Amino acid sequence: MPTILSAEHVTRTFSIGRGPSVVAVQDFSLQVEEGEFVCLLGASGCGKTTMLNLFAGFIQPTQGRVLLRGEPITRIEPRCGVVFQSYALFPWKTVQGNVEFGLRMQRVPAAERRRRAARFIELVKLQGFERHYPVELSGGMQQRVTLARILAADPEVLLMDEPFAALDAMTRQEMQEELLRIQEQNRKTVVFITHSIDEALILADRIVVMSARPGRVQAILHNTLPRPRHVSIQLSPDYAALKSEIWNLVESKQR
Amino acid sequence: MTGLRSAISASLLIRIASVCCFVLAWHVATTNGAISSIFLPSPAQVAAQAMELVSSGELWKSILVSSERVFAGYALAALVAVPLGVVMAVWWPAKAIVDPFVSLLRPLPSITWIPLTILWLGIGDQQKVAIVFLGSWIYMLVYTLAAVQRVDPVLVRAARNLGARDFAVMWQVILPAALPGIIAGLKITLAISWSCVLSAELVAAQSGLGALIWQGKDWGNLPLVLVGMVAISITVLIADAIADRIERLLLPWERHRRS
Q: What ipTM is given for this predicted complex?
C-alpha cells in the first residue's frame, strides 16, 4: 500500500505569554499507508492533538514537513477531514443540514446531496432524526452526526481527535463498534487519537505510542488482532498479551 | 407535567391578584381622601379619560405616531450598526477606526442630542427619528460586535475543514452563529429606542405619546398623564412580545433550549 500521509521529523513549539517556548512535538516521523487505521496513543500533554492539528493544516510545523500524497500541507486541508472531540456541529442546522454542509461546499447538486446525506445518515443509524437540531440529540447521537457529516464530504483521510472521550462507557463501546463496521465497509485511512489502550487495540492496525514533554514517538506496534473485529476481542488472550506489552511500554516511560 | 402546569396557573393567579390588590389600594386611597386627587387621580378617573381618548381615536393616533418614529429610527440604526459591528469584529482596522467614537458617544444619553437635532431638523418626525437613531445604534453595535467575537472558533475550523471558503464561512457560519446574540442585543435596544422617542416627545413635539403626557401636565389633566404612561407600558410590552415572536421564527434551533 502506498503512503498517503506522512510526517517527516516534525517539531512544533508554542510560545505561551513571555515564558520560554514549549516543545509540544519533537522530531516526530510517521508514514500512514492508504486504508490504514493508525492510533496515536498517549497521556494528555504528549502532543497527539498537536500532531492532528498539523495533519489537518490548522497549524504549521516549526521544523520538518507534513505531507499529503507527497505534497506539503500548508493550509486547512479539506482532504483530511476532522472529527472533533467537541463535535463542532452547526447548531442552527438540522442533522440533514449538517451532513450536507461539506457537499454544499463542494457544490454538489441538491438532489445528489440529499441522496448522499441520506446514505450516511442511514450508515450512522440516525434515520428519522433528519429534521432534528443537534441540541435535541444525545452526545452519542451528535457524534454520529459528526461522523456522517465528515464521511459524506468524502475526505481521503479521517482525523479523529478523541471522538468518543466525552461519551459514557456504554455509548463509547457502541460507537467503537459502529466505527469498526463503517471502517470495514469504507476502508478509509484513519488517524485516531486516544489515551485509552483498549480503544487503540480495538480499532487500530498500528499503534503509535507517544511519550510526553516533549511529545515523541516512543514505539510503533503492529496490532496483530484479526479483522473483522468486534469489541468482544477484548476477552481474547492475544488481546491481553498486547495490552500488557503496551502497558509496560507506557509504565517504563513513567518511571 | 401536571405539577408544572398547576404551578404556572398558580403563578398567573397570583400575578392577577397582585395587580388587583394594587388597583384596589389605589382606589381606596384616592377616594377616601387619604391622597388628594390633585396629586393622584383615582383609577376610575383614569379609566374614564382612557375611554374618552379611545373613542375619539386620539389614543390610537398617538400610539401610531410614536410607534412609527421608533420603528424608523430603530430600523435605520439596525441597518447601520449590525453590518458595522460585524465588519468591526472580523476586520481589526475597522474596529480601530470606529472604537474611539463609540467610547466618546456611548456615555451621552440620547436627550443630550435634543438641542442639536432640533436646530438641524426642527421638532417634527425627522428629529424624533434622529433621536431614536442616535440613542440606539451604539447599543446595537456593541452587542453585535460581542456576538460575532464570541463565535466558537472551532465552528470556523470545522467549516473550513469541510471545504468552506471565506464567503461561505462568513454567511454560513459566523453570521448564523452570531445571530442569537445579535437578536438579543436588538431586543434589549428596543426598550431603549422607546425611551428615546418619549423623551424627545416630552421636550418638544406636537404629537405622540410623550406629547400627550406633556399636554396633560400643561392642562392640569392628571388622568391624561396617567393614561399616557399606561399606554406606553402596554405598547412597549406588545412590541416586546412581537420581537419575541420574530426571534422564535428566526432562531428555530434555540426553541428547544428555551422550553
A: 0.89
Is residue B78 within 8 Å of B140, Cβ to Cβ?
A: yes
Q: How far, in Å, CA of B258 to CA of B254, rounded?
A: 7
**Which of A82, A85, A92 should we substitute to test contact with B (largest number of B Cβ atoms within 10 Å)?**
A92
- Cβ atoms of B85 and B140 within 8 Å: the answer is yes
- A123 to chain B, closest Cα gap in Å: 19
**A-chain residues within 8 Å CB-CB of B151?**
none
CB contact under 8 A, B176 and A153: no
Measured at the CA of A91, the angle between CA B75 and CA B240, to 5 degrees, comes to 35
Chain A contact present for B257, CB below 8 A: yes
- No. of H helices and E strands in chain A? 7, 10
Longest dimension (CA), chain A: 58
With cell 441540541, the residue in question is A135
Mean pLDDT of chain A: 90
Residue A82 sits at the chain B interface (C-beta within 8 Å): yes
Q: Closest by alpha carbon to A209, among A12, A38, A8, A54?
A: A38
Nearest residue on chain B to A157, alpha-carbon basis: B161
Choose among B55, B26, B31: nearest CA to B226: B26
Q: Would you call A97 an interface residue with chain B, using a CB distance cutoff of 8 Å?
A: no
pLDDT in tens, chain B (259 residues): 556 777 778 889 999 999 999 999 999 998 888 888 788 899 999 999 999 999 998 899 999 999 999 999 999 999 999 999 999 999 999 999 999 999 999 999 999 999 999 999 988 899 999 999 999 999 999 999 999 999 999 999 999 999 999 999 999 999 999 999 999 999 999 999 999 999 999 988 888 999 999 999 888 899 999 999 999 999 999 999 999 999 999 998 887 654 4
Task: Please enumerate, as own/partner, the contacts of B37-41 that have beta carbons within 8 Å and a separation of 24 or more.
Answer: B37/B222, B38/B222, B39/B222, B40/B222, B41/B222, B41/B223, B41/B226
To probe the interface with A, which of B155, B157, B162, B174 has the most A CB atoms within 10 Å? B162
- Chain A residues with beta carbon closer than 8 angstroms to that of B154: 84, 86, 88
Q: How many residues does chain A have?
A: 255
- Residue-wise pLDDT for A143-182, tens only, equals 999 999 999 999 999 999 999 888 888 888 888 988 888 8
Coil vs helix vs strand at A221: strand
- Report the distance separating Cα A97 and Cα A104, nearest Å: 9
What does pTM read for this prediction?
0.84
Residue B19, all three cell numbers? 395587580
Q: What are the start-end ranges of the H helices in A78-219?
A: 95-105, 110-123, 139-153, 169-186, 197-203
Residues 167-186 of B with CB under 8 A from A: 168, 172-173, 176-177, 179
Asked if the Cβ–Cβ distance from A92 to B256 is below 8 Å, we say no
